[in-house]
Write a structure and sequence with these properties.
The chain has 334 residues and is of the alpha/beta class. Helix content is 33%, strand content 23%. α3 packs across α4 and α8 crosses α9. The longest helix is centred in the last third of the chain and has 22 residues. The protein starts with a strand and ends with a strand.
């Protein structure tokens, strides 16, 4: 059984900064209201014609590949996590293969919302551990801004999300470092508590929405039962972190860096307090970027590494919770 490690990291966010004050000009909200509930001060939104889910993923991927020391010809598989592809189909994995000029390697699209990156990382880890591949490019990229209800009606959700991309190269390891384990869960019972219901084959399709031409239709905007999601998130975050630690005979005190999905600063703070972690053991950047869905963990992981907050030998824990419900963790010896 081989072991896999993250050999290169990269991220990209659009230049367009949208502050809470900017949002207060187009909806009934303010900086205090947003920060009190989410901790977010600003986020990045793409400018049409400048960035897309694919283009951001390409930029993040190029940085990760360059830092990995792996040449593009040695990339033998792609895993792309997103819920905001440029096309309804095909997914962006094949587009990424083309834009990077890679050989005709396999490309897998993962659609697990905010848990998408950890799920994708787990897939890459398993492929390498079984010996099928040696170098896998894992990308998570999201454009949420174009699909939000940017009015007072949608403010509870629209103030939270931002756009961006993160990427890692996962490589076969023989030096004792790497991904120790990953842990994946789902609970479809609560799928509609955080969802975009249309368009969908099982309900209202694009032709229905166009035919009805109903400006009051909210089915194609994200819906979130905020308090319900928060209560479940803090429970599942705790469970899946402990599951990962116990699987590796580790204690909470062994955590050098926790990178939680940047869903809400209040969730991260709740988990930090529950586990008794200090500020140097938890990395948050939601204040700057908002919730970038699948991209949030690789963006935060890369930024923490760039700032020297993750060092060789550190025990790094990744944890996510999101729509589905899905939740996941990864335990890494850096």
């Amino acid at each position: 059984m081989y072991q896999s490690k993250i050999s290169g990291l990269g991220f990209y966010v659009p230049d367009n900064v949208v502050t809470n004050e900017d949002l207060s000009k187009i909806m009934d909200t303010n900086d205090e209201w947003i920060q009190e509930r989410t901790g977010i001060q600003q986020r990045r939104h793409i400018v049409r014609g400048q960035d897309t889910t694919l283009s951001m993923g390409v930029k993040a991927a190029n940085i990760a590949i360059e830092r990995s020391g792996v040449v593009k010809d040695d990339i033998d598989f792609i895993v792309f996590a997103t819920i905001s592809p440029d096309y309804y189909f095909p997914g962006p994995g094949v587009e990424l293969q083309k834009e990077l000029g890679l050989k005709t390697v396999g490309a897998l699209d993962v659609r697990n919302q905010c848990s998408g990156f950890v799920y994708a990382l787990s897939v890459a880890d398993q492929f390498i551990k079984t010996g099928m591949y040696k170098n896998i490019l894992v990308v998570a990229s999201e454009v949420q801004s174009l699909g939000l209800d940017m009015t007072t009606r949608g403010r509870a959700v629209s103030v939270i999300f931002g756009d961006g991309a993160g990427a890692v190269v996962v490589t076969r390891s023989d030096d004792g470092s790497g991904i120790l384990s990953t842990h994946l869960h789902s609970e479809g019972e609560h799928a509609k508590e955080l969802a975009v219901l249309a368009p969908g084959m099982g309900g209202r399709w694009v032709t229905d929405i166009i035919a009805e031409n109903n400006p009051e239709d909210e089915s194609y905007f994200p819906y979130m039962n905020g308090q319900f999601v928060f209560k479940h998130a803090v429970v599942r975050f705790s469970e899946v972190i402990m599951e990962g630690l116990q699987a590796n005979n580790l204690q909470v005190s062994d955590i050098d860096m926790l990178i939680p999905h940047q869903a809400n600063l209040r969730i991260s703070q709740f988990i930090q307090k529950k586990f008794g972690l200090n500020d140097d053991q938890v990395f948050n950047n939601i204040q700057k970027y908002g919730n970038t869905t699948a991209a949030s963990i690789p963006i935060a992981l890369t930024e923490a590494w760039e700032e020297g907050k993750i060092k060789k030998g550190d025990t790094v824990v990744l944890a996510a919770f999101g729509s589905g419900f899905t939740w996941a963790s990864a335990i890494i010896k850096w």
